[in-house]
Design goal:
Blueprint (H helix, E strand, L loop, with lengths): L4 H7 L6 E5 L5 E7 L4 E3 L13 H17 L9 H5 L4 H17 L11 H7 E6 L8 H4 L7 E12 L10 E4 L4 H5 L3 H5 L2 H4 L4 E5 L1 H10 L1 E5 L5 E9 L18 E6 L19 E3 L2 H4 L4 E4 L6 E7 L10 E9 L2 H7 L6 E2 L1 E6 L6
Parallel strand pairs: 5-8, 5-14, 11-13
Antiparallel strand pairs: 1-2, 3-4, 4-16, 5-15, 6-7, 8-9, 9-10, 11-14, 12-13, 12-16
Helix pairs in contact: 2-4
């Protein structure tokens, strides 16, 4: 099984291995974690009630993640050393994604798909509870982390009004990538002061200042212009400055992104090959350490949600204690929270691994 490595180490009398966490670029951080403490077998709560995730959406995300991992086998998010040290080979993540995609396709249109059936989940998936512990939790998560729980936040595709040209309060542009020289030479404050505009960057659409900060925070926005047309815009390239989780004033953050118009909500990946996301079937988190494509179950008040770890952000660098659930497209955070009220602020989370065998 996936955890066979750890008992072998214990029998040999070896000290529990500590693994250095990886940063956003895949390089080691100073933070370490005891690998044997990360996963706890026996998360029986996963199979207590039917799973409420849409199997079709979950299957599409799983298929997309499996294909992406095949195209990018050397990406650091595809080879999470922490999971490997905890006894879970990266191949088990891709095998699980393949099984989920096959099950969703085979059960399309059925009233009782197997990915919702608690008995099937218990029989065919190994459930290992994520338990990074409170030690090392960043300040933004420490107050929410309790024994055996992770912090669960939510993000959305923010629905915003915009203008094709600067008009009134709509004076903050989403820019196409101006190129590495211009991009890397500007902080957020300098861009807002006109640095990219003077450098000839192409404005895609104009938002209010508050709308711009929403776009930079959420990563994807749906913008409606006065003619009734809507378009999706997704972050593309950043300016090389790190996100500062201690800074609550968005105007004082140094990180800035260019954008591109897209046809779907996009998650992790390089420009031009980012993972397509679907609301209710994905979370953002620490992909460098937990592994891109990990199938997770989040305990909720009305039943578990099955999701794929397919997105990330600056808030998750070295942060194993938080997951951010993609709730969908909404005009406000209040609407998002109302639609996802069954998700608690703290919840048990399990890594699900396919036990093997044909899944069709």
């Amino acid at each position: 099984m996936g955890l066979a490595l750890l008992p072998a180490l214990a029998r040999a009398g070896a000290p529990p291995p500590r693994v250095r966490l990886r940063g956003a670029d895949g390089l080691p951080l100073t933070q370490t974690i005891a690998a044997e403490a990360l996963l706890r077998p026996g998360a029986a709560w996963v199979s207590a009630r039917p799973a409420l995730t849409d199997p079709a959406a979950l299957g599409r995300v799983a298929a997309g993640a499996q294909a992406w991992l095949t195209r990018h086998p050397d990406d650091p998010a595809a080879t999470p050393a922490l999971l490997a040290a905890a006894g879970v080979a990266p191949a088990r993540l891709t095998e699980t994604l393949a099984a989920v995609a096959a099950l969703a396709a085979a059960d399309a249109g059925l009233d009782r798909p197997r990915l919702r059936d608690p008995a099937f989940l218990a029989a065919h998936f190994e459930a290992l509870q994520l338990c990074p512990g409170a030690a090392g939790a960043p300040p933004r998560a420490a107050s929410d982390v309790q024994d055996g729980n992770l912090r669960i936040t939510r993000y959305l595709v923010r629905q915003l009004d915009g203008r094709p040209q600067p008009e009134g309060a709509y004076r903050c542009a989403l820019y196409a990538d101006p190129g590495p020289a211009v991009r890397a030479g500007s902080t957020r404050a300098e861009v807002l002061a006109g640095a990219w505009d003077r450098a000839g960057a192409q404005p895609l659409v104009y938002l209010t200042e508050a709308g711009l900060y929403d776009a930079l925070l959420q990563g994807t926005v749906e913008v409606r212009t006065p003619d009734g047309a809507t378009a999706l815009y997704n972050v593309d390239q950043n300016n090389g400055h790190a996100y500062d989780p201690r800074e609550n004033d968005p105007a004082r953050q140094r990180r800035y992104w260019s954008f591109r118009r897209v046809e779907a909500v996009l998650g992790y990946g390089p420009a031009g090959d980012k993972l397509p996301l679907e609301a209710g079937a994905v979370v953002a988190g620490d992909v460098m350490n937990l592994g891109l494509g990990a199938l997770l179950a989040i305990e909720a008040t009305d039943g578990p949600r099955l999701v794929v770890l397919a997105d990330t952000g600056g808030a998750f660098v070295g942060n194993l204690h938080q997951l951010d659930y993609l709730g969908g497209a909404f005009p406000s955070h209040a609407a998002l929270y109302a639609a996802t009220a069954a998700l608690p602020q703290r919840a048990r989370v399990a890594l699900l691994l396919w036990r093997g065998g044909p899944a069709g």
